[in-house]
Write a structure and sequence with these properties.
270 residues; mainly beta; 9-stranded antiparallel sheet; 46% strand; elongated
């Protein structure tokens, strides 16, 4: 009778894997651990590839994700005990390899002359990309000149992100603006309210770490609808921008969809 007790699991490395990603497993067996194999497979397939075979703890290794195509992958670990018996872990599913050189690198909001922590006229929010982008991929026909748009601010309770998860996006009548969404991590709108603002969209080319990059800036105007539904947020937090893959470089390379977290000292924004 085999009374061996073995267990193996692979740790979640995070939703997005870029560059040299660390893969880690935990393994134990009453028969001793002979080896642990850490494997990956494109999500939806059973084409498992062994990335590393480890014969001693810690069962951790660096996977160079730039050697595989971008996309979602499943991960698992296989323990081979001292008697040669295998135990397979549960899968960690749908972790996205994302090594696109174009990505959102920062989102920043600035208060103009209004009330700190309140979205009001003159406040700005800027989106910084890692490279120069094709401005027409942000919104059709755009060249970077001042363009009238609308900013929509929705209370987090509408979207399931909580009272301090109010989310904004940029819209344009009759067309699309492909800047994605920003979770402000603040409470700028009253419960289950939506507020829209007139705004202006502009773009500029800047140099970041020696690389020409694009900054898209939205400047708020007056409230269009939802007047009286805004509130002053007292939360100092880092906003999270979720870009879209519709935006592309001037050469047509699609943007990463990996979230960009606001850099710098935590503040109340706007």
């Amino acid at each position: 009778m085999d009374n061996t007790v073995s267990s193996v699991s692979v740790e979640d490395p995070g939703a997005y894997l870029t560059g040299n990603a660390t893969l880690t497993a935990t393994a134990n067996s009453t028969a001793g651990v002979g080896s642990v194999r850490i494997q990956t497979a494109p999500t939806g397939t059973s084409t498992w590839t062994t990335r590393f075979t480890l014969t001693g703890a810690p069962y951790s290794c660096g996977w160079e994700t730039r050697t595989v195509p971008d996309g979602p992958y499943d991960l698992r670990a296989i323990l081979t005990d001292g008697a040669g018996k295998e135990t397979i872990s549960a899968n960690v599913a749908g972790r996205r390899v994302d090594n696109s050189p174009l990505r959102g690198v920062d989102v920043q909001a600035f208060n103009s002359a209004g009330i700190q922590g309140l979205l009001d006229a003159g406040d700005t929010i800027s989106f910084t990309y890692s490279q120069q982008i094709n401005l027409a991929s942000v919104t059709p026909g755009w060249t970077g000149a001042a363009l009238p748009v609308t900013v929509r601010l929705r209370d987090g309770s509408i979207l399931g992100t909580g009272n301090s998860g109010d989310t904004l996006d940029v819209q344009r009548p009759g067309s699309t603006v492909n800047l994605g969404t920003v979770n402000t991590k603040g409470n700028f709108a009253k419960n289950r309210r939506t507020i829209t603002y007139n705004a202006t969209l502009t773009a500029a080319t800047v140099t970041v770490a020696g690389v020409l990059s694009t900054v898209v800036t939205v400047t708020l105007g007056g409230v269009v609808s939802g007047s009286g539904s805004n509130r002053t947020s007292s939360t100092a937090a880092a906003m999270v921008w979720a870009p879209t893959s519709t935006v592309s470089t001037t050469a047509g390379l699609a943007s990463s969809i990996a979230p960009a977290i606001e850099t710098g000292t935590l503040d109340r924004d706007f």
